Amino acid sequence: MRRHSDGRIEAAAWGSSKDRLLAGVPALLGANDDDSGFVAHHDVVARARRANPGLRLGATGVVWDWLVLAVLEQKVAGKEAIRSWAELCRRFGTRAPGPGPERLRVPPGPAMLLALPDWHWHRTGVDIKRRTALVNAARIAGHLERAVELGGLEGRHWLRQVPGIGVWTAAEIAQRAWGDPDAVSFGDYNIPSMVGHAVLGTKLDDAGMAEVLKPYAPQRQRAVRYLEAAGHTRPRFGPRIELRDYRAM
């Protein structure tokens, strides 16, 4: 995609799904998102919104790719999840169509993940719990795409029928697949503390964050996104968490 000086977006796509991808560009860029009904109930959220007037929640319209990444991010550091994602794409993804570099890969689909033997999962650094969740999802991957049509709480509930996909994972998928403005990532290591320090100046747990965000329903995730876009983060104390390399276990 290329943005012109007059604001127009020029997009090109390759491969068997190029028509669908091109048709989905407006939604991907947030053209279908509407925050006109959003009300800021805290000064810090109001300031964040004024500072980011063009923020919109984009939607890819696809569950599978985000599901894989969200499951890989369960209970591990982000760098570890990205490393496993990169290994899966490099080893088992196919070359991306179009003029991209040779190393650019399309992520592996459900059939490929179902065919992977245990030792390949180990080599990519994915433990048995996350592996099982991905295999469970791959077996019914076609049905999971219906979550986009359902949207909202119903769509998240549909995703959670898969063993291994809980509240956090369903919310992470919903935020990206259909731009769900109310899908808060409860269970996240950083977000409750970030929201607490931004709004109240103190650390919060999930229950505390739910109470703070309650007035923003059904746009609680939008409030979180405004705070993130404004640069609010969780205060860091002590050393960083040491990354676990499951390949060495």
Automatic annotation (TrEMBL):
What top-level branch of life does the organism fall under?
A: Bacteria
Tell me the Gene3D superfamilies matching this sequence.
Hypothetical protein, domain 2
> Does this UniProt record's set of keywords contain DNA repair?
yes
| Source organism of the structure | Amycolatopsis bullii
Query: What keyword terms does UniProt attach to this protein?
Result: DNA damage, DNA repair
Do the record's keywords include DNA damage? yes
How is this protein named in the record? 3-methyladenine DNA glycosylase
